[in-house]
Amino acid sequence: MSEQINSGRRKIVAVTAAAGACAGVAAAVPFVAMMLPSEKAKAMGAPVEADISALAPGEMQIIEWRGKPVWIVRRTKEMLESITKSAANVTDPKSEVPQQPDYATNEFRAIKDEFAVLVGVCTHLGCSPQIKAGGSGEMGADWAGGFYCPCHGSKFDYAGRVYKGAPAPINLQVPPYTYLSETKILIGDDKKGA
Ligand code: FES
Fold first, then answer.
1. Exposure winner among 18, 56, 60, 109, fewest CB in 10 A?
2. Quick check: CB of 162 below 6 Å from ligand 1?
């Protein structure tokens, strides 16, 4: 299934396979492909590989790992800048709550700044938030971009850090992952890296 929808100033494209939680995945972004792990991999909770070779700046790819959507967002310079600017407005700017592996305990909560890898499940009651571009009318002119959970209104920045005042108590989870190559990420296992 494929559709093209503009989300605010910047078009965000999602490549998705996720069987989402209650809200599904990012209604405001296009779904352009499906990437599903094998039934065996799903059954075993095995690590899954993501090929990010076609992911352009500003795009999001979603794959399923252990029945959950995992987002891979190739962040633009503007997205990274918005994370830096949002530090004063998020609950846990330094990721002190262990919601990520040690190697992702940094400003951008990632191995490589450019690529966010996040479990797309809200830490409030488990809905699947939606990616929302900065400056979109729907979120207001002050919105810097990030993720919005429509169930009860939690907001997260492009690093998955929850904004103050949200019902979600902690940041989105960063799963264990590693790079198998420049264009392949293994999600669910960080011991097999190149
Ligand atoms: S489940 Fe996301 S805000 Fe409640």
1. 56
2. no
